[in-house]
Predict the structure of Leucine-responsive regulatory protein.
Amino acid sequence: MAVQIDDLDRKILIQLQQDASLSLDEIAATVGSSKTPVWNRIRKMRNAGVIGTQTARLDADALGFEACFFVLIRTSEHEAEWQAAFLKALKERPEVQEAHRLAGDIDYILKVRVQNARAYDAFYQALISEVRVFNVTALLSMEEIKSTSALPL
């Protein structure tokens, strides 16, 4: 069930999505409110699970993680035991930034960030040594055109 938010909540969330390090004073001034109501609304939305953990967004290229692969996985295994082992393997690998189970011909898609192709191969070899997969296709992203976690509020 979706949480009900009003226009002021929406304005606050937009500000937080753009820069979660803004002070309460800065947010309040931007949304046209005072500090206390803004703080109360942020606290309410945190308690309701609308606002999750706040993190710093790092520059992958600046840190040497220049290769981004989208990995398409098809499997002939659909038993609970295989799925548990697969999910465990994914969660233990920091290279996996995102993992999605899909409808259609492809069972899973992963977003994997590594230093280079050699590092991807090491990731790939480790993954297939732990879980059986039917087919793996790796697509190298040549250019990141847009990347955001912001929701269209």
